[in-house]
Amino acid sequence: MLLRETGFLFILTLTSAPSVQALTINIDFLEDGEPFHYASATAGGSDVAYAPGTTVGGGLFEQAVSAAAQSWEALIGDAATLSVSVGWAPLTGSTLAVATQSSIRNNASDGWVGDIRFDDGYTWFADPTPLQNEEYAVPETLRYDMGGGEMITGLSFSGAAGAAYGAFDLFSVSLHEFGHLLGFTSIGNDEFDDGEIDILSGKFAGATLSLYGTGHMDPDDPRTSEALMVPAIASGERRLISQADLAVTTQLGGFSDVKWEGVRAAGRSGTTVVPLPATVLGLGGGLAALSLLSRRRRRP
Q1: Which residue, of 63, 134, 186, 282, has the greatest Cβ tally within 10 A?
Q2: Cβ 229 vs Cβ 175: under 8 Å
Q3: pLDDT of 171
């Protein structure tokens, strides 16, 4: 789930996908009245082809969601298939989006299904070039040694201008919700009860990262407060997948072939970025929802 927030910026650079088939995310874009795969709901409010009247930026809904899926596919080399139905649906409270899945996977090679529902009551930024960051003036990268060597713990962009100013970034929210469906969820994972996770293998084995009970990265730890998977995002902000986000998602999701080099410091051209929050909404996990909150951005 993703929540509204005001604030900061992170970046991720995508590398070209490997020639061998790896993670595949199949997306079924729903139109008005079509049922979601798993949630007991139907798409409504807007046909996906047109999106809500509050969508700005000139891009397409499908562009932002597909770019987010491709970003995760570029970072995970394991053979696995996720099938997702995506559409607009009225959500309660201050929820921006919510992800649901049919079951908890213990084997990353199994196919599984899920849904992502976006609330059409907010102003959304549909970026026509979601893998570039020209709408955001200030890139920021956080780096910390969490016990397994220095890692990128946050990638974001702030200083939104034009259509991106004051709107919630569809690309960032899509990245976040796909993260839940790929494993970053409190459902069935005791680590969220403990409030931390020890990374057991891979490039950053030995790292310990703080978690938040609703299926998120801990927003109160200043070292990871700007990670993609914290429970809130602000308007006028973009966030990308950091190495911290990737480490937790792949361990909980059971993935082992991780493309760490695909996550790079925040920049402008040719990178995907996540901005700082202006008006804050929260991100959720498993069955996730975004809710409105106002929290101050913490600096390291």
Answers
A1: 282
A2: no
A3: 97
- 249-264: pLDDT as tens digits: 999 999 999 999 999 8
pLDDT tens-digit profile of 191-232?
999 999 999 999 999 999 999 988 999 999 999 999 999 999
Residues 37 and 115 sit within 8 Å (Cβ to Cβ): yes
Which range of residues forms the domain containing residue 239? 2-283
- Quote the CA–CA distance of 35 and 292 in Å, as a whole number: 26
Residue 288 lies in a domain: no
> Domain for residue 290, yes or no?
no
> Phi, psi at residue 80, to the nearest 5°?
-160, 155
The number of distinct structural domains making up the chain is: 1
Instruction: State pLDDT tens for residues 23-60.
Output: 999 999 998 888 888 777 777 766 766 678 889 999 99
Question: Is residue 168 assigned to a domain?
Answer: yes
Burial 153-179 (b: 16+ CB within 10 A, else e): bbbbbbbbeebbeebbbbbbbbbbbbb
- Under the phi-then-psi rule, with left for phi > 0, alpha for psi from -120 to 50, and beta for the rest, what region is 35? beta
- 245 phi, psi to nearest 5 deg: -60, -45
Rounded Cα distance, 146 and 188, in Å: 24
pLDDT exceeds 70 at position 145: yes
- The phi and psi torsions of 170 (rounded to 5 degrees) equal -60, -35
Q: Answer whether residue 19 is part of any domain.
A: yes
